[in-house]
Amino acid sequence: MLLKQKFISIAGYICLIIPMGISSSVLAKDTIVDEKSVVSNNEDSQDDFSQRYDSEFNTTYGEEEATSELLEAANNGSVEAQYDLGAMYFEGLEFDKNYVEARKWFLKAASQGDSNAQYVLASIYSSGLGIDVNYMEAAKWFKKSAEQGNINAQFFMGLLYFEGKGVKKDYLEAVKWFELAASQGDAKSQVNLGWIYMNGLGIDFDHIKSFNWYKKAKEQGDNSSLHSLGVR
Fold first, then answer.
1. In terms of Cα–Cα distance, which of 107, 109, 132 is closest to 121?
2. CB–CB of 93/46 below 8 Å?
């Protein structure tokens, strides 16, 4: 029970992020979902995306022409266009919602090295949207994104190694990825590190490190660490 209460696990927190925006560079923000349902909580909402799409494309072109231009750019190898098409199919903007088509375009952008597309693609594989859950593929793409500094991908690499999903269970690797995300300010990773150091999983028990990571999470408003800090 302690694990379920104190550790943010992949079963409870599968992350699916669709950072959206035509011609925009978006730092991934996480949206917490379970393995069957998506709860939208993105900084860039569907309405924001629609407004930007209207202002950047449809004020100059008609909707049909704008979509045609985007498809042409995507087919010609534009990573940005491929990513945006993936987001549009995922959200059902200009097209009927289609997770298979969304995954196709995200894959094209991810294969060209786009960190956000890699993260979204991994999230789709881990969530089973339009496809069977595949943690090995999720781990592959999370890692590519994490290696480029994507904080949420780093968090999920930590979870995958901690739980042995898609990769061999390895607490030291889990700590490594959690620490990379935690050092960038990710409260979820800070909580998990606090729990790991408190319980000495794969590493020596260290009450001071545990306290410090929990404290950092609390300072960011994460109340899941309060009991461990002695706050009731």
1. 107
2. yes
Greater model confidence, 45 or 168: 168
CA angle 26, 102, 22 (to 5 degrees): 35
For residue 15, the cross-strand partners are 32
Using an 8 Å Cβ cutoff, are 179 and 193 in contact? yes
At residue 82, φ and ψ (nearest 5 deg) are -60, -45
Amino acid letter at 126? S
Q: Would you state the structure tokens that stand for residue 113, as one six-digit string?
A: 């090295």
C-alpha 5/C-alpha 161 separation (Å) is 19
Alpha helices for 56-169 (secondary structure H): 63-75, 79-91, 99-111, 115-127, 135-146, 151-163
Which of 95, 106, 22 is closest to 59 using CA atoms?
22
Q: What pLDDT digit, counting tens, does each position of 3-36 carry? A: 333 444 443 333 333 332 212 222 223 322 223 3
